[in-house]
Design brief:
It holds the Pfam family MMPL. Keywords: Cell membrane, Membrane, Transmembrane, Transmembrane helix. Residues 781-794 have a biased composition (Basic and acidic residues). It contains 27 helices and twelve strands. It is an alpha+beta fold. The strands form three sheets. A five-stranded antiparallel β-sheet has the order 2-3-1-5-4, with helices on both faces. Helix 7 (133-147) packs across helix 8 (161-195).
Length: 794
């Protein structure tokens, strides 16, 4: 397979680039309108849950029970002033005549104290805007433009769920543009520093642009068939740039190394595709498997990231394996052109330094030898640091992100802040109870008993029907007859009003939902509302997590086995990846749930984190950790095949990939931190959290934990039973053998010192098995790499 790609890119590079250009132009045209197709809704509800199905019924039969638009009316003279009341009633009446509005309720129509602020200077007009999120959004935007602002003695601000979603969509769009303007120049500067060449530095960005443009086109098509969240665009940019840089770093560095060794450009490209290209294939498969696990969850928020993530990974890999080799073949030695440091040295007369690759080699050589000499110490300290960093996650609290993820200066956020501070929380936090079979006269006592049972629950202020209070505390007052309930097709509903101190979607409100559902009643009921949606989302996620984890772990075990031929390395790699995530989850709780650093980062802590976000962050971070693991293990396997010595393979593998992994982690962290500079808390949490996971994985895990543990596991690291070894050799032959270089002798004289490694099979480069007998002595071939390996053993 890799040989076929090599033939295509080295023999017809201009045709490959022309076809890629046509595809990119078509993707630009198709994907230009993708933002209009994406949904700004939270997407964190299970569409088949009790709360969602009951919500659909309420939306159809009792639309004014679920207001999604709020007008906050403020007047210096007070809301009870005659002129203020006249103007406000006019606003409410005008709103009721809007085509998209199904129901309007205001303080001036009902006199309800819950719709009036404590100081009497503000009051609410609440309404329901019909239609889907995509239909309601533009309608609310038009209403906000017409009704917001000054109206004589009134100042009107627009809030409510739909207004919040509109603001989230516009804020994310602005933040993504800003993050691109921040990330691209910084990334280019880092790549120029890493490569020492402007030409080499531009290539990863070209691959990233191709991947992002192609993914936008794919999302445009996908959004025509299913719901796709606007948040998925953040992942498209982060992974599109990050992985393209990772893959291009690997490919370009190998290409430059082959050129430096004397190969002509087509030969250098062929070796690059067969070695680094093989790593790219496995990395893309590993990351895609981790991201695809989100398709198992019913929440379209998570599924959207799977659509975007798998697509951008596949396109980044495809561009790296097809477009990039064609460019490298055409560029040849010009890939090293335009070194700004060389121009600076000419002006200053400074001496020619070591190449970036040679300088990095020496640093990684010293570090690796130190870690492997003190392997138990470094392994123990690394484990302790990672476990301690993850301890805060033990006190995690889950909820659903609300308006407080928006900046404090956003109008819809300000409206909701005023309601929380100056109004009863029941104005927006009611728990809806849908009664599917309202009792007749003979069964009226059942509804009375049920309302009384609900009112006696902890944290309940009162239970009401749409026409007034039904039950207040344990005593019934102002009881509404059963036939006064709004009924439609044998449906009716009650509203459970939490105590004023209970926030809408807090852990307390979730406990209240569970308590309501636990009440014993002969009536057929369903519970809905924001808090119920959170409870159902948690249940849906908890139900699918075992299957998702199993799918991710099994796919990783299989992929690492296919990559390395070992049965031990897959188990270790999954363990390493899991440990690399502990710091991320601990930091998420310590920073975003507990509110530490909320001032410098500029967000409002709520005391909980979004239920779906840890799943998303796990899949992304686990996949990226696997990416770096594949880089390292692939090169270690190649070196082990070449030299047949375990310690040498670990050291050389880390030396050859340490600089690549570090540079890739730095550039990806820059992209993620640019995404994390968003003013929307969920996006900020995603960017900062995954950036931390990437940095920890590239430093603590890959630099210290992996070499120290592999030093202790010894040559058992590469163990596999003979049938699996034969299968792996056949698989390698199909894909394209990863070790493109011939097996080298172990030392200057061709005899390997006694290091505990198995002797090498000169045909396959792998350690000989007892059944095969000892390998024949290799022919001595003095070489710079031979001397290097002998020096490793010293």
């Amino acid at each position: 397979m890799l040989d076929a790609l090599t033939g295509l890119t080295t023999r017809r590079p201009w045709w490959v680039l022309f076809a890629a250009l046509l595809a990119v132009v078509g993707a630009v045209v198709l994907g230009s309108g993708v933002a209009d197709r994406l949904r700004a809704g939270q997407g964190t509800e299970d569409p088949l849950s009790e709360s969602a199905l009951a919500g659909d019924v309420l939306e159809e039969h009792f639309p004014d029970s679920r207001p999604n638009l709020i007008l906050l009316v403020e007047a210096e003279a007070g809301v009870d002033d005659r002129e203020v009341a006249r103007r406000a009633l006019g606003l409410a009446e005008g709103l009721a005549y809007e085509d998209a509005v199904a129901g309007v309720t205001s303080y001036w129509q009902t006199g309800s104290e819950e719709l009036k602020s404590d100081d009497g200077s503000r009051a609410l007009i609440v309404a329901h805007v019909s239609g889907t999120e995509d239909e309601a959004g533009p309608a609310v935007a038009a209403i906000a433009e017409a009704y917001g602002g000054e109206h004589g003695p009134l100042t009107v601000s627009v809030g409510g769920q739909t207004a919040v979603l509109n603001d989230i969509e516009s804020t994310i769009a602005e933040d993504l543009l800003r993050s691109e303007l921040i990330a691209l120049p910084l990334t280019l500067l880092i790549l120029v520093w890493v490569y020492g060449s402007v030409v080499s530095a531009v290539l990863p960005l070209l691959v990233g642009v191709v991947a992002i443009i192609g993914t936008n086109a794919a999302l445009y098509v996908i959004a025509g068939f299913t719901d796709v969240s606007v948040f998925a665009q953040s992942l498209t940019i982060a992974l599109g740039l990050g992985l393209s840089i990772d893959y291009a770093l690997l490919m370009v560095r190998r290409f430059r190394a082959e050129l430096a060794a004397g190969a002509d450009p087509p030969t250098a490209t062929a070796v690059t595709v067969r070695t680094a290209g093989r790593t790219v294939v496995f990395s893309a498969l590993a990351i895609s498997a981790a991201l695809a696990a989100m398709l198992l969850f019913p929440l379209y928020f998570l599924r959207s990231f799977a659509y975007a993530g798998v697509t951008v990974v596949a396109l980044a890999a495809l561009a790296s394996l097809v477009v990039l080799p064609a460019l490298l073949t055409l560029l040849g030695h010009r890939v090293n052109s335009l070194d700004p440091r060389r121009l600076l040295r000419r002006r200053t007369g400074a001496a020619e330094p070591l190449s970036p690759e040679d300088a990095a080699d020496r640093r990684w050589q010293r570090l690796t030898r130190l870690v492997m000499r003190r392997a138990p110490l470094f392994a123990s300290v690394s484990l302790i640091v990672l476990v301690v960093a993850g301890l805060p996650f033990l006190r995690v609290e889950f909820g659903m992100a609300d308006d407080r993820q928006l900046p404090a200066e956003t109008e819809s956020r300000q409206v909701m802040d005023v309601i929380r501070d100056d109004f009863s929380s029941t104005a927006t936090g009611a728990v809806d109870v849908l009664v599917h079979s309202p009792p007749q006269d003979t069964d009226a006592a059942a509804l009375d008993a049920y309302a009384s049972a609900l009112s006696s629950l902890d944290d309940v202020d009162e239970v009401r029907s749409p026409l007034g209070v039904y039950s207040d505390g344990a005593n019934t007052r102002a009881r509404t007859p059963v036939d006064a309930l709004r009924e439609s097709d044998d449906l009716a509903y009650l509203q459970v009003m939490p105590d004023p101190g209970v926030e809408d979607i807090s852990p307390q409100s979730q406990d209240l939902v569970r308590a309501i559902r636990a009440v014993d009643t002969p009536l057929e009921t369903s519970v809905s509302g924001q808090a119920a949606a959170v409870v159902d989302a948690q249940a849906a996620i908890a139900e699918q997590i075992p299957l998702a984890l199993t799918a991710v772990v099994v796919s990783m075990l299989v992929l690492v086995y296919l990559l390395t031929g070992s049965l031990v390395l897959p188990l270790l790699s999954v363990l390493f990846n899991a440990l690399s995530l502990t710091a991320m989850f601990g930091a998420v709780v310590w920073i975003f749930q507990d509110g530490n650093l909320s001032g410098p980062l500029g967000f409002t802590p709520t005391g909980f984190i979004d239920t779906a976000l840890p799943v998303l962050m796990f899949c992304i971070a686990f996949g990226l950790s696997m990416d770096y693991g594949v880089f390292l293990m692939s090169r270690m396997r190649e070196e082990y095949d070449r030299v047949g010595d375990h310690r040498a393979a670990v050291e050389l593998g880390l030396r050859r990939t340490g600089g690549i992994i570090t540079a890739a982690a730095v550039t990806l962290a820059v992209v993620l931190l640019a995404i994390g500079a968003s003013r929307v808390t969920n996006t900020m949490m995603l960017g900062w959290g995954v950036a931390l996971a990437v940095v920890v994985d590239a430093t603590v895990v890959r630099c210290f934990l992996v070499p120290s543990v592999l030093r202790m596991t010894g040559r058992a690291t590469w163990w596999a039973p003979e049938p699996l070894r034969r299968f792996h050799r056949a698989f390698d032959a199909t894909l394209g053998e990863g070790a493109a270089e011939p097996v080298r002798p172990h030392g200057p004289g061709g005899d390997a010192p006694d290091t505990g490694a198995a002797p090498s099979d000169t045909t396959t480069g792998r350690p000989a098995t007892p059944e095969e007998g000892p390998a024949p002595a290799p022919v001595a071939e003095p070489d710079r790499k031979n001397t290097e390996v002998a020096h490793v053993r010293d």
